Amino acid sequence: AAVVEAEAEDPLILQVVPDAKEEGGFGGGGGGLGLGAAAVEAHFVSFERRFGRSYASAEERAHRRSVFAANLRRARRHQRLDPGAVHGVTQFSDLTPAEFRRAFLGLRRKKGSVGGSILGSSHEAPILPTND
Amino acid sequence: LPSDFDWRDQGAVTGVKNQGSCGSCWSFSASGALEGANFLATGKLKSLSEQQLVDCDHECDPSEADACDQGCNGGLMTTAFEYLLKSGGLESEADYPYTGTDGGSCKFDKSKIAASVKNFSVVSIDEDQIAANLVKHGPLAIGINAVFMQTYIGGVSCPYICGRHLDHGVLLVGYGSAGYSPIRFKEKPYWIIKNSWGESWGEDGYYRICRGRNVCGVDSMVSTVTAIQTSQK
């Protein structure tokens, strides 16, 4: 009971408790890092089912599975760097970071901008009062 | 400023949309801001067309002739607002539905304009100013570094380290005062962000990120838009 109470009060403890059964998020534990090939395969099958993935060939599936395994490790890293959120398997878990950027991002950053406002722009917002 | 604020509670935010495999986040950010501004101007919430921006907005930055809005290959919300000022406005989602591809020609019909931009502004990197502009003008188009969003499932994101290189356009719809931050052992304020990756991503399509230190560059590219009332034929 003391352990449970300590965990409830200090979620940091939960970060290092491995939980291979965790399918989605890793907020509660390990998942991903250190999983054996069979466990990764089980996670990947679950991912395919959940997000309706089918791949053109066995080679493509094997490649996507390796990307997925890398993303499990990445999610775990993100979980450590961002403990207030839950990170884990998402619909993007079979995409490399580069593929993800190409397909789902697309903000063109303006050169020469400071704080999102172009120097000397006539579109700079006036300062609003915030004390009332 | 209120300690908590959410434009969804005021009916100013349409349902979560899905950009598909197309780098058109900037168009969803821009249209979402105009949807909110149009709601404030007219009292009616209309879902507006992103595809019109994808197909028709090729506006370039005056200072960088080669930096233009390019459909699924990316764009910028402020240049989208420039396009909207010039073109007259956005059609509704129903009249110009989203396809998630940018190979088609522009089918913009001026007679079907559902919302028009009156003016737009960029907001300084000051969280109080961002909150004030949010409350006064409606949801804000913002840029963010999306590196943690690929694996995000829920909660308040507050990474120790996150690049401030902006690569994703989203919509700031509100803020809260008390999201629990386990590493700091206290409640931390956060922004509420509408994304365009469908409802199955994140918290029903939304992302919460902590306020206070420009995490992931969230405070550094913020623009607000105001709308004029239009009559639809």
Radius of gyration of CA atoms of chain A, rounded to a whole number: 21 Å
Quaternary structure: heterodimer
- Going by helix content, strand content and strand pairing, the class of chain A is mainly alpha
* Distance N to C terminus of chain A: 48 Å
Sheet with the most strands, sense and barrel status of chain B? 9 strands, mixed
Fraction of residues of chain B in helices? Answer: 10-25%
- Beta content of chain B comes to 25-35%
The count of helical stretches of chain B stands at: 4
Q: Report mean pLDDT of chain B, rounded to a whole number.
A: 93
Give the radius of gyration of chain B: 17 Å
Number of E strands of chain A: 3
Q: Give the strand order, joined by hyphens, for the main sheet of chain A.
A: 2-3
Q: How is the main sheet of chain A built?
A: 2 strands, antiparallel
Total helix count of chain A? 5
Chain pair sharing the greatest interface: A-B, 51 and 70 residues
